[in-house]
Amino acid sequence: MMQRTVSTDDWRVLRGVLPGSAVVSDPVELIAYEMDGSLGLGQPQGVILPRSTQEVAEVVRWAAARGLPVVARGAGTGLSGGAIASEGGVILSLARMKRITELDEVGRSVVVQPGVIHLTLDEFVRTRGLYYPPDPASGRACTIGGNLAENAGGPHCFKYGVTTNYITGLEVVLADGRVIRTGGRAFDYPELDLTGLLVGSEGTLGVITEAECRLMRNIPGIKTMMAIFNSVEEAGAAVSAVIARGLIPATLEMMDRGMIGIVENYAHAGLPTDAEALLIIEADGYAESLESQMTEIAQVLRQQNARELRTAQTAAERDRIWYARKSAFGAIAQISPAYLIVDGTVPRSKLAPVLAEINRICDRHRLRVGYVFHAGDGNLHPLILFDPSDAEMVHRVHEAGREVLELCVRIGGTITGEHGVGTEKRAYMPMMFNPGELRAMQEIKEVFDPQGIMNPGKILPEAEVKGQDAGVGGQDAGVRGQGSGGRSQGAANSPRSVEEAAEALRDLAAAGRPYRIRGGGTKSGLLPAPVLAKPGMATTLSTAALTGITAYAVDDLYVTARAGTTLAELQAELARDRMWTPLVSPWSAATIGGIVATNFNAPLRMRYGAIRDLVLALTAVLPDGRIIRAGRAVVKNVAGYDLAKLFIGSHAALGLITDVTFKLWPAPRARASLIAGVDTLAHGLEVGGRLLRVCLTASALLLCHGCELPGVSAPYALVYTAEGVPEDVQVELAQAQAVLEAGGLTAARRVDALAGSQVWAEWLRTALAAGMTLRVAAPPKDLARVGLPTFRRLATLPASSAPFIADLASGLVYLQSAEIAAARQAAQRLGGYAIVLSGEQATPVAAGFDPWGYAPEGLDLMAALKARWDPQALCNPNAFIV
Ligand SMILES: Cc1cc2nc3c(=O)[nH]c(=O)nc-3n(C[C@H](O)[C@H](O)[C@H](O)COP(=O)(O)OP(=O)(O)OC[C@H]3O[C@@H](n4cnc5c(N)ncnc54)[C@H](O)[C@@H]3O)c2cc1C
Fold first, then answer.
1. Among the residues of 86-132, which ranges form H helices?
2. Which of ligand 1's atoms lies nearest the C-alpha of 420?
3. Which spans in 135-212 are helix H?
4. What whole-number distance in Å separates Cα of residue 436 and Cα of residue 506?
């Protein structure tokens, strides 16, 4: 981008619209903003520190009118050059927008401005008994805005996931100064997941001015252990062994001998300086389960030749271990003027050979390297030490860094697990993505930012931005094959491979023929019937021949299945190893492609997250035949835009999903439910609200009406399911029982064989067969706290008549009712929505009826992306909001 100078007049105009806000244009003061935590440099022409969303919008409008780059900045701790003005323009510092604006203790969410320091949020929610799991090691300094833009991770992300898994909605200032909200505080909005796309987009699609974050209950107990090894290989193998045993510790961090020495010298934490490697392992849960969890982990570690195990006996001892871990980067400053952190991620079972290979690479380049990293995630952080005044050495450092990342990609990993692409790794993006995939990212960028002013020079490689790729249509663009040739029509309509699917879509595009994508066929009865201008004119493209598991790694906790595989087949295969992926469908014929495309899962979110949190990667074919591989089979990956999120819940509006890679969980060792009959809806909601506060290992908290439940004759029932290690389940159900008794529900029964997800699946199957069923969504707080009046409004019917299941933790009510207009009005007033779930078997709806009834603020962006990828509107026309 050509640098444009900001004139005195331009500054005057800006100061006019931002009275009292800091606008820095003094070249001396600007020096402080030339760097971030990376090795890059950039000179901004000014720095602006707005105090409100409106002011951010003013600044962006002002910059857009002048074609000036806008670089959002949090604390500048980023390690990939994302916050530097590499192409000039202005830095928009969010440092003054640092309010926590709302906390909902019952629904467990918090609304924050981007300038809030991570640690401030962490400490604040903990005082209220809540927990925000993403925990970057830079938490003392970095901002939530920076965390969102980079999709930050941290030590506890192994068990609890990364930033994107906790963000339900955003407020964003777009490149033209317009302010929109994406998502919200309800769940599973019927829209393209722009929230998921914006998280990790490094400020290149818009400026985030507010975020709605999901929280967990604070975890009551933690035990921390240090395991000491005589070799890095043994430590790496121990990580895999712990996971293969079906144990999910809260953290699994590793340090090698070089780093142990450096850190000990700085932190004096009593680290074993003669060890070759150490692991920091934490188990969490109720105090009652910690001993047995740790005993089992210790047993595995000993079998893997751990030389010594040291368990922290006090909070002070634990703090000392973490202080050492978190001081690692700072400690290096004592021995080296600079270092490069290489942030690749690999499947964790490959840790030991990869570390050995990285050592060889660094030896060959005559460089010193140390390791301190998130071993449980396979997120390596080789720290390569160097002297920045030695240009030849700097060159060697970059060469070694590139080779390490090539290695990571070669074995199925990624070029960045948590630090982002920024300026530093944009040239490496083609290592991971073919030109067709890069082009897809560039097209997203153009939809959001046609002028290219939002943080230019980041993420996308230069050639891509200039449109120098092969474009669509060549082998390199990800479009494989040469047309249908001699294929039978049957194969075209029921492709057997991703290549055949790509050819089929290309042929349909060439013929201008619309098509419906069909999985197991269960959703055609589940979701609103799509409307065609001329019924019967569409081809049906079935995933029925795309079946089978194509990759399965128990010690790396992932499985890849083709789209037409039924969930039942997948779970049966996983069950052999006592694994599962937390998905439940009412129909045995439901395919994984259909489940992901419709984003439809049982009430399991509290324990495992939603579908968007379980999908690590997927392959999709765009309507022009481009094959897109989105994500990788690793739990941390922030390379480029998160394309997978766009396909989850897209109802195939953007293309055909051909396979999905899911995160695996060990099958819970224990699972049990409490069932309590309740006489009135008001009472059920009141006690349900109190039960929400208990949920830690709970997988479901349901309030049911009209369900057949064992031993329940009351009109309503509460179902509380807990799962996990037996001691945790025991303690949690005892707590839930106490809440029920305090609420006067003394006759609660414990049923070991039953799970809330099963109750939901059976009820839904019956309800959908019987008539129109709605899914009504509201922020969980409004179901639980506002209680009866809200629920009545949502239900729209006298409390006694309409059968329903309310997933209290998610704010989702499944309701057998045809009163969609009233339900919709009530839900939308609360920031939610109401959609029709049944189509074919249900009460027929009037022609022109809108089953979604929802128009998100970013609808124009969604439609523009659809138009870009499917210009003839052939793919599943009128089956979704775009
Ligand atoms: C010692 C140290 C340890 C670290 N440990 C970790 C770790 O464990 N895990 C981890 O993930 N990272 C880690 N990091 C990297 C860094 O701290 C994170 O990337 C962090 O999220 C950046 O936050 P920040 O506020 O400093 O953002 P900045 O560096 O200011 O900006 C980072 C990116 O976010 C964009 N951005 C900032 N605010 C907004 C906004 N409101 N809207 C849109 N875009 C915005 C910027 O344009 C830039 O692209 C570490 C860094 C250091 C120095």
1. 118-127
2. 19
3. 144-150, 157-160, 194-198
4. 14
Nearest ligand 1 atom to the CA of 147 is 21
CB of 424 sitting under 6 A from ligand 1: no
Q: Is residue 735 within 6 Å of ligand 1 at its C-beta?
A: no
Compute the distance from residue 143 Cα to the ligand 1 centre, in Å: 7
Q: What is the 3-state secondary structure (H, E, C) of 542-567?
A: ECCCCCCEEEEECCCCEEEEECCCEH
Q: What percent of the chain has pLDDT over 70?
A: 91
Of the candidates 46, 61, 132, the one whose C-alpha atom is nearest the C-alpha of residue 91 is 46
**210 C-beta closer than 6 A to ligand 1:** no
Residue 144 CB less than 6 A away from ligand 1: no
Residue 115 beta carbon below 6 angstroms from any ligand 1 atom: no
CA nearest to 64, candidates 179, 177, 207, 205 = 177
Distance, CA of 574 to CA of 579 (rounded, Å):
5
Q: How confident is the model at residue 849 (pLDDT cuts 50, 70, 90)?
A: confident
Q: What is the pLDDT of residue 474?
A: 38
Instruction: Say yes or no: CB of residue 457 within 6 Å of ligand 1.
Output: no
Q: At what angle do helices 315-326 and 257-267 cross, to 10 degrees?
A: 120
Cβ–Cβ < 8 Å for 333, 404: no
H-type alpha helices, 543-674: 567-575, 592-598, 605-608, 611-614, 643-647
Say if residues 18 and 67 touch (Cβ distance below 8 Å): no
Please give the helix or strand (H or E) that residue 237 lies within, else none.
helix 232-244
| Tens-place pLDDT, residues 83-99 | 999 999 999 999 999 99
Q: What is the mean pLDDT of residues 354-375?
A: 93
- The CA 294 to ligand 1 mean position distance, Å, reads 33
Residue 73 in contact with ligand 1 by CB distance below 6 A: yes
**pLDDT on residue 469:** 45
Q: Is the CB of 745 under 6 A from ligand 1?
A: no
Check pocket membership of 90 for ligand 1, CB cut-off 6 A: no
Report the pLDDT value the prediction gives residue 213, as an integer from 0 to 100.
97
Is residue 788 within 8 Å of residue 800, measured between CB atoms?
no
As a residue count, the chain comes to 882
- 203 in contact with ligand 1, CB cutoff 6 A: yes
Question: Alpha carbon of 865 to those of 244, 440, 446, 449, 659: distances in Å?
Answer: 41, 10, 9, 12, 22
SS (H, E, C) 399-425: HHHHHHHHHHHHCCCECCCCCCCCCCC
| Any ligand 1 atom below 6 A from CB of 258 | no
Give residue 563 CA to ligand 1 midpoint distance, Å: 35
- Most confidently modeled range among 442-446, 512-516, 531-535: 442-446
Q: Which of 112, 138, 380 to mutate to test the pocket of ligand 1 (most atoms within 8 A of CB)?
A: 138
Q: Is the CB of 150 under 6 A from ligand 1?
A: yes
pLDDT at residue number 479: 43
Please give the average per-residue pLDDT across 772-794, as a whole number: 72
- Residue 455 CA: which ligand 1 atom is closest? 47
How many whole angstroms separate alpha carbon 208 and alpha carbon 60? 12
Q: Does 755 score more than 90 pLDDT? A: yes
Atom of ligand 1 nearest to the CA of 114: 41
Substitution site in 34, 73, 199 for ligand 1 pocket (most atoms within 8 Å of beta carbon): 73
The secondary structure element, H or E, covering residue 478 is none
Residue with the two structure tokens 């009412």 = 586
CA of 254: how far to CAs of 156, 257, 619, in Å?
Answer: 13, 10, 32
